[in-house]
Amino acid sequence: MSLLKKTIYPLIAFLLILVLWQLVVWITGVEAFLLPGPLGAAKALGEVIKSGVIFEHMGASLFRVMVGFLAAAILAIPLGLLLGTKKYLEITLDPILQGIRTISPISWIPLAILWFGVGNLPAMFIIFITAFFPIMLSTALAVRHVDPVLLKVGQNFGASPKHMLWKIILPAVLPYIIIGLKISLGISWVIIVAAEMVGMSSGLGYMILDARNFLRTDLIIAGMFVVGVIGFALDRLLNIIERKVKRLVGFAN
User: Fold this and answer.
1) What angle do CA 193, 198, 201 make, to 5 degrees?
2) Over the stretch 15-42, which tens digit does the pLDDT of each residue have?
3) Please, what's the largest Cα pairwise distance for the chain?
4) Rounded-to-integer distance, Cα 50 and Cα 41, Å
5) Burial of 200 (0-12, 13-18, 19+ CB in 10 A)
6) What share of the chain is helix, strand, coil (3-state, %, to 5)?
7) What was the pLDDT predicted at 227?
8) 232 contact partners, CB below 8 Å, separation of at least 6
9) Which residues of the chain have pLDDT under 70?
10) Strand ranges (DSSP E) for 7-68?
11) pLDDT digits (tens, 9 = 90+) for 26-85
12) Structural domains in the chain?
């Protein structure tokens, strides 16, 4: 499918949804504070863009997500490689890690505020917890599923453990690590909105909660739209990185 079709078709579908939404609002006569139409939400979005407030909140949310996510990736990938290559570590730690992984990141918010107070640190910690376990466990799983033939070839040629890691294991698992990063970043962006609704004075989550306090439903929807657009952009960015990594690894192999 051509790039033009990939752009036009989703755009047409999006516009049809907006038209249908606006028609429902007009036909039902629903109160604006319950469900504003897309025109009202667009007007509210224009207000915060004109004032520049939206950019401050976007910057705060992106900063918290990027710091927490990068810290998680820097720590989780090496630990995942270690966990995947050391069978005794997998046997020892996997039940504990799986148990902690199933705890909702949102449930960490009270502890995060208790430990770090209010501000950026609690939100960064929540994002770190959100991203760390999926990245580490997906990396370990990818290592455990490396083609045994590749490992056997490396052993037959007398490759050292260091060379096995850098020349065989890492190139084989890199595309799967990128997928784990992509999934974790998407979840992190979802969680940051909830995290910013507690003990925060900035960020898109705070903006949405503040709009609710003033019954600005149009501004709530505008904030939700911005969250969705940024999430979509982050996903597409990692898609581009994923394709480049796969081509690089394929070329190297």
Assistant:
1) 85
2) 898 889 888 888 887 777 778 888 888 9
3) 76
4) 14
5) buried
6) 85, 0, 15
7) 93
8) none
9) 1-5, 147-167, 246, 248-253
10) none
11) 888 777 777 888 888 899 999 999 998 999 999 999 999 999 999 999 999 999 888 887
12) 43-252 (1.10.3720.10)
Q: Are residues 217 and 34 in contact, defined by beta-carbon separation less than 8 angstroms?
A: yes
Question: For residue 99, what are the CA distances in angstroms to 72, 76, 112, 181?
Answer: 18, 17, 19, 21
Q: Which two tokens stand for residue 241?
A: 């990185």
Name the token pair of 239: 């898609």
Of 63, 68, 57, 7, give the one whose Cα is nearest residue 226. Answer: 57
109, HSE (Cβ side, Cα atoms, 13 Å): 15
Look up the pTM and report it. Answer: 0.82
Q: Which two tokens stand for residue 163?
A: 């060379």
Q: How far apart are CA 232 and CA 189, in angstroms?
A: 10
Q: Which two tokens stand for residue 8?
A: 């036009």
Single-letter code of the amino acid located at 160: S
